[in-house]
Specification:
The structure holds two protein chains of two kinds. By secondary structure, chain A is an alpha+beta fold. Chain A is built from two helices and 19 strands. Chain A has two domains: 2-81 and 224-260, no CATH class; 86-220, no CATH class. Classes of the chains: A alpha+beta, B alpha+beta. At the A-B interface, α1, β1, β2, β3 and β4 of A face α1, β1, β2, β7 and β14 of B.
Chain lengths: 262, 231
């Protein structure tokens, strides 16, 4: 009997993780460049009490077996890299990647991090940095007297300086691609880190190697769909409820067994 | 102990096993590609016994828009390569490994019709009807999909995997399989059905338990106390 108790408990734990993931998605419905998370589950091992197809006599076999499963477990929290909607901002340093790839950011520790959040700013030295102040890699510095910044779809950054008619190129934004972007580890702050599962980053000019192009003056909104998350939340909550009901039934049965011997 | 007590005990034990199976179904109400176990009570010479069979009814297809998700809109199983040999799954939540090969979420390689892993790598992936996988429009392989001669020799191994313990001839490749890219197959567990089964099995358990208690306390007790009394 204890099997059902524990089995239903794994179901409740799984739904808790499901709700945690959904809550994080909903909390980030307005986070630029956020990618929806999805909890995925697997059934646990089975106890094979009587395999189907074993002989029930010399000439016959059991048409049905007896296999009892032991519940469920979370196997992955996947990130869905579906493109988010674009929002026009008109800000020269707001960028979106139309397609695959990540902007590269140099962390204070010297490590490279990757992000889809293209809301860049200038720091006091004119370097292009994220909202947290981490510089873009390769570093791009905008001259102080720049009048206009133009970023092409291939990532070239050019500026027009006061008193000069011709635009001057100051750098090229590179974006990084991964064999398996789902294997990246999220470190918060819209940043991802490379892992052995993601494979090593291959940096390239936007638009090459299957990577996306860069668009200036837009931001990529979160790809979370509130309606979808609400439906998922209802499903998860009801699944939690039925599992808790199974726990109660199992408990009741144990109690009745205890009462047999009085 | 009378035969009635043995019979009642086996009836209780069988109901408990059916409820174990229902609890497992409920725990997997959200497991992609899960197939529910259907618990039966079988009559035997000395009471009853539980049995389970896999209900292969299709689950609802859910559009995800994720390019590495695939569902089978009909019979069949994807074939994956595990350390213990080929296994079968309906769970199409695929991913890529470091080598850029198509794998399941626990890293098992998904096999193509030529029994090799499918090399995807970077680029825009599309899984088309018939199981053809394309990257940036170029074909890189076709998902192998198989069906089985009967469901009797199909066993669950856990981790969303199925095992075939019949003869190799019982594994039949499906040509032009109904693969839907960007969709997932939900668990085929229906919470309402499971609750009804749970409650009815529980009430059966309760009734048998009442009977067993009567047998044990009233009848056997009286026999021992009254017949055994020395007047």
């Amino acid at each position: 009997m204890l099997r059902a108790l524990y089995t239903a408990a794994t179901g409740m734990q799984a739904q808790q993780i499901n709700i945690d993931t959904i809550a994080n998605n909903i909390a980030n419905v307005n986070t630029t460049g956020f990618k929806q998370g999805r909890a995925e589950f697997q059934d646990l091992l089975y106890q094979n009490l009587r395999p189907a197809g074993t002989a029930s006599s010399a000439s016959t076999e059991y048409p049905v077996g007896l296999q009892l499963g032991l519940g469920t477990r979370p196997v992955a929290t996947d990130r869905i890299y579906r493109q988010g909607d674009f929002r026009q901002t008109g800000n020269a340093l707001d960028l979106v990647i139309e397609g695959k790839g990540f902007f590269q950011v140099r962390l204070p520790s010297g490590e490279l991090a990757y992000t889809r959040d293209g809301s860049f700013h200038m720091n006091s030295e004119g370097a292009v940095v994220t909202a947290a102040g981490d510089p873009l890699e390769p570093q791009i510095t905008i001259p102080a007297d720049a009048q206009e910044i133009v970023i092409g779809s291939d990532g070239t950054v050019s500026v027009t300086q006061s008193g000069q008619a011709a635009a001057q190129q100051v750098g090229t934004i590179q974006i990084a691609g991964f064999q398996n972007p789902s294997g990246l580890s999220a470190m918060g702050g819209n940043l991802f880190l490379e892992t052995s599962a993601s494979g090593t980053a291959t940096a390239a000019t936007p638009g090459e190697n299957g990577l996306g192009r860069v668009n200036q003056g837009f931001l990529e909104q979160s790809n979370v769909s509130v309606v979808e998350e609400m439906v998922n939340m209802i499903v998860a909550q009801r699944a939690y409820e039925v599992n808790s009901r199974a726990v109660r039934v199992a408990d009741d049965m144990l109690q009745q067994i205890n009462n047999l011997a009085r | 102990m009378s035969d009635a007590i043995v019979e009642a005990y086996s009836a209780l034990d069988a109901r408990m096993k059916v409820i174990d199976a229902i609890a497992n179904n409920l725990a997997n109400a959200n497991t992609t590609g899960y197939k529910r176990d259907f618990g039966h009570i079988l009559e035997t010479e000395i009471g009853s016994e539980a049995g389970t069979s896999i209900d292969l009814a299709p689950g609802q297809l859910l559009p995800t828009g994720n390019e590495l998700d695939a569902a089978l809109n009909g019979a069949g199983f994807f074939v994956i390569d595990t350390p213990n040999g080929q296994r079968f799954t309906r769970t199409g939540t695929f991913a890529l490994n470091t080598q850029g090969e198509l794998v399941t979420k626990d890293g098992m390689k998904v096999l193509s019709t030529s029994d090799t892993p499918i090399q995807v790598g970077e680029g825009k992936v599309e899984i088309r009807d018939g199981g053809v996988v394309t990257v940036d429009g170029n074909e890189v392989g076709t998902l192998k999909v198989v069906a089985f001669a009967d469901s009797m020799h199909l066993q669950k191994e856990g981790l969303n995997r199925f095992l075939w313990n019949g003869t190799p001839a019982g594994i039949q490749p499906v040509s032009n399989p109904p693969v839907r890219g960007g969709y997932l197959e939900r668990s085929n567990v229906n919470a309402v059905d499971e609750m009804v089964h749970l409650m009815s099995s529980y009430r059966e358990f309760e009734a048998v338990q009442r009977g067993l208690r009567t047998l044990m306390t009233e009848m056997d007790g009286k026999l021992i106390q009254e017949l055994g009394r020395i007047s």
